[in-house]
Amino acid sequence: MFGTTPRRSLLAAGAALLTGALLAGAAPATAAPTGPVPLTAAAVGWGELPSGGATPSAPGSVQYQDDTWVFVRGTDDRIYLNRFNGVTWTGWSEVPGGGATPSGPAAAVIGDALHLVVRGTDNKIYTNILATGGWSGWRELPGGGATPDTPAVAADRQVLHAYVRGTDNKIYENTRAANGTWGGWAEVPGGGATPSGLAATTAGTRVHIAVRGTDNKIYAASRSRRGEWDTWKEVAGGGATNDGLGLTSYRQDVYLLARGTDNRIYRNNRVDNAWTTWTEVPGGGATSAAPSGVTEGTYLYVFVRGTDNKIYGQRVAR
């Protein structure tokens, strides 16, 4: 459904962000690798999203206007969405504006506006906003940054926080105030670095980010509304990943999703300010990219790129 026609560049060409390392050593993701399991309908619990789409990258997902929205990079590098109203999916359609990306998309919601953020084919960072009047069209996110990977976004009340892996592998933040003004890119304190895209979510009054360290272990940090960061800490449980991560939340609780070193899909919950442990998401599925997730009521919806590049999802208890 996504075709293979070459796509023009999102906007222009060339860019650079800022020009480091998190920690060192590596560990298995919970279970010893047993080889990839194709994510097909045969994997109990997992279902392919309707309309036959495929993606070479990780999906992005968000809750918006009581529906679940899933965004992907098509095999033609264009950006597509599929929307679930609790009963049926709309099927895949291209996000208006003619954009393209070499990585997975990210999305967050402020009030009645959905903010979609992508890495452009020139490595700059672009946003397209869906509000009452429709999509705004693609615009470069102010500040002149660039990234070699998938960005992350999180909304806290009327403030939007964007995070990227810089071209130096350090981690940067750009914040959009309630009046729509962006503050510019600044390095997240603590000296962290990552070889992959990162993940972000808001829980309570804090924005949480999670990254793959340069040792393939998984680290997290969070910031207050005043901009005060805590220190980078390894997520409890000794997990590891070769990819980016997925983060979502429900009230004060945070849900972290990871592709294990065996390509299976794992979760770790942060409840009462403490991480639990890594457990495999039921169903025996596998993925070749970072998972994505959203919460709704007592459920966690998990979306992945299958080992066949199709897009799969399932609903599990939070």
TrEMBL record:
Domain PLL-like beta propeller: 57-312
The protein, known as: Carbohydrate-binding protein
The keyword Lipid metabolism belongs to this UniProt entry's keyword annotation: no
Keywords: Signal
Signal peptide residues on this chain, from the entry's feature table: 1-31
Magnesium keyword on record: no
Database matches in InterPro entries: PLL-like_beta-prop (IPR058502), TAT_signal (IPR006311)
A Pfam family that the UniProt record links to this protein: DUF8189
